[in-house]
Specification:
Helix content: over 70%
Number of strands: 0
Distance between the termini: 44 Å
Number of helices: 5
Radius of gyration: 15 Å
Strand content: under 5%
Order of helices and strands: HHHHH
Length: 141
């Protein structure tokens, strides 16, 4: 039963990452086509924003990834908490701290999944999204 759960989780995570990376690549270098407000951006790139607007845009992306990770409550919770902390962040240090804590949780989940002999590629893609967020915060935050 646990194997079946992990297989479903892996498929969901892979699909979520495909959607996320597809939207990131499609909107690279542009603001969202859906809205001009970074608070409602779900598609497109966050690299057009800086400081608080950037944190809000990245928080929306993490919320989207969390919604796609519904089969893993621990991953979903970590992503939602990071998104909430990003929205509350007032400086680069707080924003990077939120991303770092989330990445630490996801890395722990990856280790557990791999030690169980399962494929953690969907989770690795989530760490890629978190790395993207950290790079943007470091360069524009």
């Amino acid at each position: 039963m646990q194997l079946q759960f992990l297989a479903r989780y892996a498929r969901t995570a892979i699909l979520a990452m495909a959607v996320i990376f597809g939207t990131l690549l499609a909107g690279h270098g542009t603001a969202s086509a859906m809205s001009t407000s970074p608070a409602t951006t779900q598609r497109g790139s966050c690299d057009a924003y800086a400081a608080k607007e950037l944190y809000n845009c990245l928080a929306n992306k993490l919320d989207h990834v969390a919604a796609m990770s519904a089969r893993s409550p621990e991953t979903q919770s970590a992503l939602q908490k990071a998104a909430s902390q990003l929205r509350a962040a007032t400086n680069k240090v707080q924003a990077l701290s939120a991303i770092s804590r989330c990445r630490s949780v996801v890395d722990g989940i990856i280790q557990r999944v791999r030690s169980a002999g399962q494929d953690g590629s969907g989770l690795v893609r989530i760490t890629g999204v978190l790395s993207y967020a950290a790079r943007l915060i470091q360069s524009k935050g």
